[in-house]
TrEMBL record:
Protein's UniProt name: Cd2+/Zn2+-exporting ATPase
Domain of life (superkingdom): Bacteria
Compartments (UniProt record): Cell membrane
Family recorded in the similarity comment: Belongs to the cation transport ATPase (P-type) (TC 3.A.3) family. Type IB subfamily.
Organism: Seinonella peptonophila
Lineage: Bacteria, Bacillati, Bacillota, Bacilli, Bacillales
Amino acid sequence: MKRYGELIAALSSGLLTLIAWKIDGSQHHVAITLFILAYVIGGYVKAKEGWFTLIQERELDVNFLMFFAAIGAASIGYWMEGALLIFIFSLSGALETYTLARSERDLSSLMEFKPDQARIYTNQGIEKMIPSEELKIGDIIVIKPGERIPADGTIKQGDSSIEQAMITGESIPVERSVGDEVYAGTLNGTGMLVVEVSRPTEETLLAKIMKRLEEVRLEVPISQQRIERFEKFYAKAVVMITLLLIVIPPTLLSWTWSDSLYRAMIFLVVASPCALVASIMPALLSAISSGARKGLLYKNGTQVEKMANVRVVAFDKTGTLTQGKIVVTDLVTFANDSHQLIQYASSIERGSEHPIAQAIVQYGLDRDVTLLPLTTMKARAGWGVEAEISGEHWQIGKPLMFSSLTDEIQETITKYEQQGQTVVLIGKEGHIYGLFALQDQIRPEAKMVISELRKRGILTAMLTGDQHITAEAIAAEAGIDLVFSELLPDQKVACIEKLKALHGEVAMIGDGINDAPALAKAQVGIAMGKHGSDITLETADIVLMNDNLAQISHAITMSHRLHRVVKQNLLFALAVILCLIAANFMQSMTLPLGVIGHEGSTLLVILNGLRLLR
């Protein structure tokens, strides 16, 4: 592999330099030959990179500067110093390549999780192995214990624990059974599963993650682009000053040409911007890698930097701030026994697919009620359901479905509606016997996240299409600062623009198709990974793979840490360069010390950046 090849070449160069130095006094010509071999073996990779930049892009870079300095040292008889420069510079480059690969390992290792083969059930009921790329929607596959799942799908038979940390960031295996979704690349536990494929191979969650990883690798953040532009200008300036240092001292200061060229070569080494160039990318890749281990997937490195500038975090409500699943919160009875009322309500609603109906049925199942047979059932669209049970005509639905509401019932309805809850009444023959209050539940971590954001001085806002009363109730429970309700998608975009104008950069978090325009407009768009729509996942800059809002706080913390580390690196690199240049002009710097000081600072900024892996 490249990183090991560079390291072997660098170490070989160092060994040749050591042998040549030992025999230089007694066998000078042999020593020169060994020095030349050390130059070629150690400097080939960097010289090739510098030559490519010079010929193809017509620009100078640090590789060219280092190679030029080594040749200059050899030309005035400092063969050992030149070879030492080549050795340490090549070793520094090899270690940089190795450490960068280390920081990317948590990301690139995802590529290895996707199985090449899948065990499919044929129409004849026979199992056979096929390439996983050939799987189609609707195919039935079998995953045995200990095997990785080859495609996204829904469990049709079996139950098992699934290790899916590489997809969602969950630290422990999760239990999955019939009806649950599983993801390609995750590891099946002790149970055998029969799964129906729900997405083609190129559209699985793992495939989307891989695509994002490629985008991360290709995207160069703005700060790194600035450093690279500065490097090109700076390298030209260093070459010009080096040439002046070669010519002016012998002419005006009575230096020897040998001394002047030696000092010029030291300047060329110590003034090169190697440490400056290495100040950003290792730290950035470490931050991205750390986020990936926690289920925080960045689309590109720019977003890691931008999170530190966010002044407002805007949340969608349903499916983002809340769990997106309505549940029964309260049951009020006006006449009947509560258990019997739950039994009748669950029996009536079991045939409906409406979320409210499913919530009431689940409420009954959780209380072990026995569902009763229905004689007839009729759904009234937009209102509720009517059914015959044991010769009695029952109704369940909106309050407007019932003609007579007592003051007590109306007061109860008003109380729950003011809390942002949905109210469903149940009765028979015109008489109301009970009231179900339902509400989408706020995510357990939401209050903690919003509290942390407030401590950081960051405003929080809710952008939702829901009615104002419901939005205000959820916002009050969560601790949201600003509430914008009854919004259409384009109105959410307008809210983002308004928040940005009033308060500064905005991060928007959502999961639905209607959130995509707002995510695109925000400084940073963040999507819920588990249940987010495809267009939302494509639009977002960051994906919360396990839908854990707590990772927003981690993203902001990591962004601030990245800014601090990069600032430390840049200041340290500049300070070292200035000190080494000053020492050289005072003629108290030797070429070996200049090489060690310069390349040592490069290694230190790389290692400082790797601290973000923790």
